[in-house]
Amino acid sequence: VWYAHSWNGPAEFPAAGSITSPPSVTVTTDGSTQLVFFRSPAGHLLESWYAGSWNGPVDFTTSAFGGNGVLASSPGATVTPDGSTQLVFWQGAGATLWEGWYAGGAWHGPVDFSAG
Q1: Is the pLDDT of residue 13 over 90?
Q2: Which is nearest to 70 in space by CA: 48, 91, 47?
Q3: What proportions of the chain, in percent to the nearest 5, are helix, strand and coil?
Q4: 40-60, pLDDT tens digit by residue?
């Protein structure tokens, strides 16, 4: 559901398939893009985004993270104040803390901050 001078929706995004977590939503600092992150049934990090039209979802666990950093929780997402970086955090197996980030035109990580 969205508001643009009046309420619209709700809209279902069948391409997203089943999701197994509440979505985490953030907006780029210039307001041009809505970012929606969620967990797939396989525990993968998925993103859909709106920039004039809806795009995705993209499975970053498979495509950018090489299968690493499977989610055991909902992701939490934000954009840095200068708009240069998207940050996504989640709980992995064994109560570990993971982060993936988008900066400089590419995804990076994931990094397990619980690793010694």
Answers
A1: no
A2: 91
A3: 10, 45, 45
A4: 999 999 999 989 888 889 999
pTM, whole model, 2 decimals?
0.88
Task: Please report where in the chains the tokens 């240069």 appear, as a residue.
Answer: 84
pLDDT digits (tens, 9 = 90+) for 56-90: 899 999 999 999 999 999 999 999 999 999 999 99
* CA–CA distance, 21 with 48 (Å, rounded to integer): 14
Reading phi first (left if > 0) and then psi (alpha if -120 to 50, else beta), residue 45 is in beta
Question: Rounded to 5 degrees, what are φ and ψ at 93?
Answer: -60, 145
* Distance linking the first and last C-alpha atoms of the chain: 43
Alpha carbons 98 and 40: distance in angstroms, whole number: 16
CB 57, CB 6: distance < 8 Å? no
Residue type, 13: F
